[in-house]
Amino acid sequence: MLPGHGSTPRELMRCRWEDWFAAVEHEINSLKERYQQLYVAGLSMGALLSLYAAILIPGLKGVIAINAPIFNCSPLLTTVSPLFRYFKPYYPKRDRLRMRELEEQGRFAYDVIPVKAYLSLNKLRNLVLQKVDTIKLPVLLIQSMQDKTVQPRSAYYLQEKIADSRLLELPYSDHIATMGKEKDKIAQAIIEFISGNRR
Predict the structure, then answer these.
(1) CB-hemisphere CA count at 13 Å for 118?
(2) pLDDT value, residue 6
(3) For residue 47, is it within any domain?
């Protein structure tokens, strides 16, 4: 589990993208000692971390990036966050009903976004944007078309920048696609992607 996750919003507020990426890098290096073929997959911020791993860490075989937040659906939050951090440390999440549905399925989630962590996420996003066109690995992009967090054009942007990429659009899924109506479709696409890249 990434630092600050699965604990409290206060703990997450103390973490930065460097902490999250260090955890990912440590796990990748540990797995590389035991496996010859390693793929990295992530949802949302995890997708950014996976793409950043493809940029920096040699020896990976491919990346699966699900709903990578290149362009978000809350541009106002992005604009005001640098000011918010001084007097409003948390920003409430909007879709409480969907959050409750996911919790009933066993997903742990915070009901607020720590503003400092959100700002750090945007720093990671900017680093990915600077070097995304250097990714030479095969990349499977998966994008929910009903995503209220990430604009679907994020996936089109990445597809244009990454030479060896393919895109799966999910017409009926929201942001947490891995727990949505098309989760089996996602699983099948990942199996086919990995099987097709084995040599």
Answers:
(1) 25
(2) 82
(3) yes
CATH number at residue 157: 3.40.50.1820
Kindly list the strands in the beta sheet with 39-43, ordered across the sheet, starting from the edge strand earlier in the chain: 39-43, 62-66, 139-144, 165-170
Q: Which residue range is the domain that position 91 belongs to?
A: 9-197
Round to whole Å and give the CA distance between 136 and 82: 34
Which residue spans within 5-92 are E strands per DSSP? Answer: 39-43, 62-66, 90-92
Q: Which residues contact 68 (CB under 8 A, 6 or more apart)?
A: 44, 47, 48, 51, 128, 141, 150, 154, 155, 158
In a domain, 63, yes or no: yes
**For residues 169 and 15, what is the distance between their CA atoms, to the nearest angstrom?**
32
Tell me if 1 is assigned to some domain. no
Q: Which two tokens stand for residue 191?
A: 């199996």
Instruction: Give pTM, 2 decimals.
Output: 0.90
Q: What are phi and psi of 192, to 5 degrees?
A: -65, -40
Our count of domains for the chain comes to 1
Q: What pLDDT, in 10s, does the model give residues 58-101?
A: 999 999 999 999 999 876 676 667 666 666 777 777 666 656 66
Tell me if 193 is assigned to some domain.
Answer: yes
Output b/e per residue, 60-99; b: 16+ Cβ within 10 A: bbbbbbbbbbbbbebeeeeeebeebbeeebbbeeeeeebb
pLDDT at 199 over 60: no
Lowest mean pLDDT among 11-15, 26-30, 120-124, 167-171: 11-15
